[in-house]
């Protein structure tokens, strides 16, 4: 069960989608929420630390201003959380982006679930980098909410994107608290005959979930590699799915991130909340 949730509140982008989604989820699960926001300090500013007391004072002033920006964003979340009766704690940070990514990843490791906003490629912002870093560093599930998301979060109809991989299995297990509450579960496979070994086939997954008392049905589709992500989203729309569950492929080196093709495409063009695990 998700009882301890971390939510990243942007300071440089519209934040209401992630606030609304995180609060609705926490209310449904009676969970505590730790909200963290980062006021970013330009990396060039940090280089003055070796420049003596005067420049160190300038850096500290920049850090204080950054923390103020984080506090302003968190004040909006806190107001909404109190109105909803949600237990929450706010954590304002002022840091250069690389340090912020490390701190957020470490915080995520001691939470049952992290909630983040989908990156927006149309906006140049350090807030776009943090969700992917949390995914790679958390060691647990990350719920991405589309930046177009409106209304309370629900997960009545869930699609599991299944390719038999370790990451898909991890995401499926990490989504167990939501799957247990779902009204309908759809197992989605793409090119299963060519890509999935029999031992980890969709039918075996259905049997495994059935032993948990979960009823499922399977939709098997074919698609060229470049069309896998749009095929999944098209099915999600046709089925009226509230949530997708999938593995998050790639790896991170803080300054250098490599995303798998389908994962990257999903983060760039997400139309439905998606729970990913890496």
Automatic annotation (TrEMBL):
<comment type="similarity">
    <text>Belongs to the universal stress protein A family.</text>
</comment>
<dbReference type="Pfam" id="PF00582">
    <property type="entry name" value="Usp"/>
</dbReference>
<dbReference type="InterPro" id="IPR006016">
    <property type="entry name" value="UspA"/>
</dbReference>
<dbReference type="InterPro" id="IPR006015">
    <property type="entry name" value="Universal_stress_UspA"/>
</dbReference>
<feature type="domain" description="UspA">
    <location>
        <begin position="157"/>
        <end position="276"/>
    </location>
</feature>
<protein>
    <submittedName>
        <fullName>Universal stress protein UspA</fullName>
    </submittedName>
</protein>
């Amino acid at each position: 069960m998700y009882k301890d949730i971390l939510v990243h509140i942007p300071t440089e982008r519209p934040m209401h989608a992630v606030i609304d989604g995180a609060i609705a989820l926490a209310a449904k699960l009676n969970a505590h929420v730790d909200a963290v926001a980062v006021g970013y300090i330009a990396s060039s500013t940090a280089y003055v630390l070796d420049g003596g007391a005067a420049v160190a004072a300038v850096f500290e002033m920049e850090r204080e201003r950054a923390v103020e920006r984080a506090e302003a964003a968190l004040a909006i979340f806190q107001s909404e959380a109190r109105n909803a009766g949600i237990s929450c704690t706010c954590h304002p940070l002022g840091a250069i982006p690389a340090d912020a990514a490390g701190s957020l990843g470490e915080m995520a490791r001691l939470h049952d679930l992290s909630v983040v906003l989908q990156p927006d490629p149309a906006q140049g912002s350090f807030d776009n980098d943090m969700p992917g870093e949390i995914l790679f560093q958390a060691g647990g599930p990350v719920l991405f909410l589309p930046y177009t998301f409106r209304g309370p979060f629900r997960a009545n109809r869930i699609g599991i994107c299944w390719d038999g991989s370790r990451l898909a299995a991890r995401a499926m297990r990490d989504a167990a608290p939501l799957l247990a509450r779902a009204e309908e579960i759809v197992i989605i496979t793409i090119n299963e005959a060519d890509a999935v070994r029999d031992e980890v086939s969709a039918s075996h997954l259905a049997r495994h979930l059935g032993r948990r008392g979960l009823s499922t049905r399977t939709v098997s589709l074919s698609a060229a590699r470049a069309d896998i992500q749009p095929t999944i989203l098209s099915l999600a729309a046709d089925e009226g799915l509230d949530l997708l569950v999938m593995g998050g492929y790639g790896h991170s080196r803080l300054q250098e991130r490599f995303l798998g093709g389908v994962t990257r495409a999903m983060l760039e063009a997400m139309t439905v909340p998606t729970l990913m695990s890496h």
